[in-house]
Amino acid sequence: MAGKFVVFKGKDGKDYFRLKAGNGEVIFTGQGYASRKSCLNGIESVRKNSQDPDRFDVRTAKNGRTYFVLTATNGQEVGRSQMYKSDSGCRNGMKSVTKNAADSAVVEE
Asked: How does pLDDT run across 59-105, given as a tens digit for each residue?
C-alpha cells in the first residue's frame, strides 16, 4: 500500500498536512498554513526537498528522543517527524519520508 498526504483543517483554522506511510502510520507533519493553496505548496516542497539528504536535520528533544526536521532551500522549516527512541529509528523515518513523499496521493480529511 502506498503512502499518502492527508490534508486537514486544524482547530486553529489553519490548514495542515500529514504524510502517512503505507501502513497508515504518520511519519511527517507539516506546519500550519493560512490557506489550502499554501498547504499544497508545502506538500510540493516536501516532495522536492525530501529527495536531498542535506535538507534533513536530526535533532534531540529535551527528553532525549530524536526527531528530524525538513527544511526548504530557503532555510524555512517545512515540517517535522514524530519522536524516535533511537537514532536508527529516526534515520529509517527519514528514508520513509524520502520514499513516500515522491509520489504519494493527496487526500482530504
From this structure: 999 999 999 999 999 999 999 999 999 999 999 999 999 999 998 99
For the stretch 36-42, contacts whose Cβ atoms lie closer than 8 Å and that sit 24 or more positions apart, written own/partner, are 36/7, 39/7, 39/15, 40/7, 40/106, 42/17, 42/78, 42/79
Cα(62)–Cα(94) distance, integer angstroms: 20
- Written as nine digits, the cell of 81 is 517527524
Give the global pTM.
0.91
- Domains, the chain: 4-108 (2.30.29.80)
3-state SS assignment for residue 91: helix
d(CA 101, CA 103): 6
What grid cell was written down for 89?
529509528
